[in-house]
Amino acid sequence: MKISRRGFFKTAGAGAAAGVLSGKADKSLAALPAREDPFANAVSTTSVCPFCAVGCGTVVKALDGKVVQIEGDPEHPINQGALCSKGLAFSQTVNSPGRLQQVMYRAPGSDHWEEKSWEWALPRMAALIKKTRDASFVQEKDGRTVNRTEGLACLGGAALDNEECYLYAKLARALGVVYLEHQARI
């Protein structure tokens, strides 16, 4: 007997409808034992998904300082509890065994990476930003004051909230950065 794709879906739909209307589907679900929540003792914290500019709300559950589950926040006005595939995989990103936990530095001309502390890295980054800004700073162009640098650029991400975005954009503009690409630049 040859059955078409359309015929298969008609038959399957009719069978599902008959099962629901007969009430047997409800009885079989009621007969299932209630599952215990394995994360009942976890500490829940609300956060924002960092993967795009939408800013979906998440509920992050942690046990003993380790993230065990990330789900959509049902009370968040943007996503109302739904998450895309990237948001659902967020816990894998957080718990990845290959995730860097310290600063890695490769000296110019070197072929290997070294572990460095934040106490070493932050002043070095500040010094290099100042050096680049001073070397590429333009005060006047064609007799007009411009006060800008074209040697630096700033790229932002969606993990920042409005206040952080505002401060980020203000810092970039205070440095004279022309190439600012971020949702806060509007």
From TrEMBL:
Highest taxon of source: Bacteria
Location of the protein in the cell: Cell envelope
One Pfam entry name: TAT_signal
Key words, A-Z: 4Fe-4S, Iron, Iron-sulfur, Metal-binding, Oxidoreductase
Cofactor: [4Fe-4S] cluster
One term under GO cellular component: cell envelope
Any one GO biological process: anaerobic respiration
Record-level Gene Ontology MF annotations: 4 iron, 4 sulfur cluster binding; electron transfer activity; molybdenum ion binding; oxidoreductase activity
InterPro entries xref list: Mopterin_OxRdtase_4Fe-4S_dom (IPR006963), TAT_signal (IPR006311), TAT_signal_bac_arc (IPR019546)
4Fe-4S Mo/W bis-MGD-type domain boundaries: 42-98
Main location: other
Subunit structure of this chain's protein: Heterodimer of a large and a small subunit.
UniProt record similarity statement: Belongs to the prokaryotic molybdopterin-containing oxidoreductase family.
Classification via PANTHER family: FORMATE DEHYDROGENASE-O MAJOR SUBUNIT (PTHR43598:SF1), TUNGSTEN-CONTAINING FORMYLMETHANOFURAN DEHYDROGENASE 2 SUBUNIT B (PTHR43598)
Protein name, entry field: Formate dehydrogenase major subunit
Species annotation: Desulfatibacillum alkenivorans DSM 16219
Taxonomic lineage from the root: Bacteria, Pseudomonadati, Thermodesulfobacteriota, Desulfobacteria, Desulfobacterales
